[in-house]
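Hi Y.,

Following your request, here is the sequence exactly as I used it, all 818 residues.
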Amino acid sequence: MNLSFNRITLVALFAAWSLLFNSTLAQAKPAKLDLPSIFVDADEYNSHADKTADLVGHVKVIRGTEQMTCDKAHIDLAKNEIMAEGNVVFITPTNFVRAEKMNYNFETKKGIIQKGFMQSGHETIEGEEIIKTGEEQYQAKNATYTSCVNCPASWKFSGSNIDATVGDYAYVSNAVVKVYGAPVLWLPYVVVPIKTQRQSGLLPPSFGSGSTDGFTIGDSYFWNINKSKDATLTETSYANRGFKTGVEYRFVADQNSKGRFLGNFINDSAYAHDSRFTLPDCRYTSQGCVVNPIPRNSAPIPRFGLHYEHHYELPDNYVNNINLNLVRDTNYILDFPQEMTGQGDSALENRFSLAKNTENTHTSADIDIYENLLKADPMGQNTDAVHRVPELKYFLMPTKIWGVRASLEANYVNFFRAGSTYDEANNIPGFQPTTPDPSVANGGGYTDRFRTGQRAIIKPDFTYPFNVGQYLDVVPELTYEEDYYQFGYGAPAYGATPPVSPTASRRSVRTTLATRSRLSSVFTLGDDPKNNKFKHEFIPEVKYTYVPYLYQDRHAFFLGNLVNNNVFNGTYIPQAYDNQPVTEFDNFQFDYRDRLRDLNLVTFGITNVLIQKRVEGSDTNYRQLIRHRLTQSYDFYTAQQPDQTPPSPQTPFGTKLVKEPWSEIHSLLELKFNYFNINSDVSYYGYDQVAAETTSVGVHNSKGDTLSLGYSETYTAKIDPTTGLIVDQVDLSTHAQAVNLTAFFTTKFLDISSGVGYDLIYNNFTTYLVNGLVKFPGKCWGFAFTLQQTLGGSGSYSWSLPFFFGDSPVSLPRPPGV
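Below is the corresponding structure, written out as tokens. Let me know if you'd prefer a different format.
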């Protein structure tokens, strides 16, 4: 029987065959068949008695999720096979095949592709004959492989044999690497991934150079341990330093808990001759100068850097965080800044924290261990670093009690260090470093700087907000604070100096009255009231802070017994300022919680806000476009204090005190528009007629590309070296100017992420970090480079030629502040 049909589908044929099968199966045991139907469309269809058919013209065959088109085909329905010829296109959910001829079995998923190619994602295998040995398995002779999507491919592997599994790997024998068709490298055997999921394997090598490192080459092996764990093993060769071994391990415990370990080790030949190691610079140490060079040998110096962090969210609202940073020497983070953070800091922090949060409370226990980065010997002992072991915190969030909002803070810290429990004053003539005798005196007074001990703070706070009419908000606040100190040691009387008690205490009452008014107007600009309606708010405010009661023991801990009695009623008590810098002469003891602030202070402020209302469909959005705040304070306590310190054996007589009650005029401006923003922080010091500022101007687009230019001009306060007291709001000798540029943008062929700092006083680059990725046509390879210099470190650069298998490369990390 030979029937011809024009544009007939195989649905009718299946109905006829089902009648034939039913008559046959009626005399036999029924067989259970569960096969998908095959749908066929063609210009001509010729069926045969052996359950085969020939299709000619615009052939289209569909079986489940598989689809094939061609010029003509022969189908064997009994075997579920098709032999297709002419412009063959075969499509599955994961693969695309184009060939001159293709034999394929829909049941076994096997077949032969002749003079064609197979594509899965970005991966393409092309050859004279490709044998499909399974659902996702292919073998090819004298074929090529590439992950480029351009034609001709930017690069490809040509091999005598390619054995590939989609979603796994392609194994290429006798491989020749070709770039734009030209052979550049022969490799006996190559394994390349042809899947987008994480997988174990070698990463592209990286190259670099630096003034100290010399030429550098490194490569990494990525180990996909399981779905929640992986690791990267790296070996790097430095021409001047030697070999460095690194390992990075990452894990995810659950949706909200994860961690990471990073460790690197090197026997550094270059560091053995580094002057920072052989003769440290005493300017950057809290231990004084090194008189004689430290004897060193020329053998390679073992160096390492270790970092570990994790965040665990535990049952019952407990949260555990660990952040560890360990180095063999304090210069390690300057020489290898890409491995550890902390460049420019005075110490590395190692912290363990366990916290429990409820709706109204916060309870936590912390342990903080610090590695002093300012010690003279970069490999010296860490005995002078002060640690918090432990720190216990409890906060009761503001809770209404009879209309009053009450909160409570309780804080306990044990300050500990491995060395002496106290210091003498640093760098003052006639003073020696720490001695075993705490009663060493100069001019009849103690010079100890207490550095260890225990402190407990209890601080309840009460506020009662109310309104006066519609335009005035009033917030009175009362805070009581109790501070207790236990030092564990004391000092006997020495000459005219009384003994020093091993304990001290302080208590105070602080009152605050804040008033604020808010005036506003609504107006429309332009012809579109939906998107051009604006609201301007004018907010004047006055805040007065006064300490009516303060008691503190006459103790060396509180600025050397400058207080002549315990009653706060006109007696001079030194206070600190928010912008007071931390120096070796600074008088705060453990931390800022020991400073006295705002004893009698009034602050005036004016804020202007511009808000835009936009209506988009059924949604109404409000956006703050402009915010400008001006503030200035007047310090009654400073205005009423004497011109000089009162006579006291604890400080030189007649130390000049600050008589500048008006603070700087502080301006804070924020402008946020669709593609443009400005942030400006300016302080004008009227007594010295100079201004300090930090201003940044940025532009951005809807893709997230950003360019920001920042300018800073700063001063620090002038400190009396013998007392640590502020004698002027501005020290003109500390004038500093700098600019910084940050950029992040991605294009079709180039990605850039950079941050650059430049000192306008010394005309040099202080820091820079430029990450770039040049993406060649085809989305399959690129040129990655890094230029980097950290504060106090030397410059270096590195580059690599990454090959991208599967998806396009991910974006570069954004620089800080972008």
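Helices lie at 11-25, 275-278, 332-335, 636-640.

Thanks again,
Q.
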